[in-house]
Amino acid sequence: MTVDTIITSPLLSPCLQTANATLAQSLTLIDFLSSNASNPVTTDLQTQVAHHQKLLQAYLSKLRHQTRKAAYTARTTKAETAETRKQVDALLLQLQNLYYEQRHLLGEIAACEDYNHAFRELPLIELDEYLEYFPEHADMSEEEIMPRRIEYEAEERRRMEGERSELVKVKERLVQENARRKEEIKKVDERLEGWIDGLGTLEQELKKELE
């Protein structure tokens, strides 16, 4: 496995290509110098050496530029990756909190559903009977219809309590009227008894006079 197959990053591939070209140019310069080591130094030789050195400097300059650019991009990417990781960690924490809150709310809902509410013990009329009075409520859910049933029951009890109070008042008036009439009858009886006693006395006196 060669370096070319290992490094596939678009950021590092240009650096690798330039490094290979720089290495090749360095080897070319070394080979050229080695092959001409025994030859006298001429102007043409110096010109060729300068040309090879110029190419090598150009490759080195390009390699330094690409390396700095790659390093800067890598640092920027690393910083962005770290920031993104922080954001992801924050989102994961929020998600965990939401899951916790969801479990808590589901537990509360289950507890509310299982709670023995007082309204379940109320002596309400049967649902079928209620819907006979209010057929427009037939499509409502249990949560929607229960408050209406309770309110209806409360209204009925208030109405019945009002009727009971009126009946109590009527009863009290009848009791008072009955007592008054009994008193009047008693007085009439007393007058009748007095009148009857008077007749008896008168009858005795008449008998005495007739004798």
UniProtKB/TrEMBL annotation:
Location(s), subcellular: Nucleus
GO molecular function: mRNA binding
Protein's name according to its UniProt entry: THO complex subunit 5
UniProt superkingdom: Eukaryota
Family to which this protein belongs: Belongs to the THOC5 family.
Lineage: Eukaryota, Fungi, Dikarya, Ascomycota, Pezizomycotina
Coiled-coil region list: 160-191
A GO term from the CC aspect: THO complex part of transcription export complex
The keyword Ribonucleoprotein is annotated on this UniProt entry: no
Record's keyword annotation contains Coiled coil: yes
Chief location bin: nucleus
Keywords: Coiled coil, Nucleus
InterPro entries reported for this sequence: THO_Thoc5 (IPR019163)
PANTHER family according to UniProt: FMS INTERACTING PROTEIN (PTHR13375), THO COMPLEX SUBUNIT 5 HOMOLOG (PTHR13375:SF3)
Pfam entry (one): FmiP_Thoc5
One BP term from GO: mRNA export from nucleus
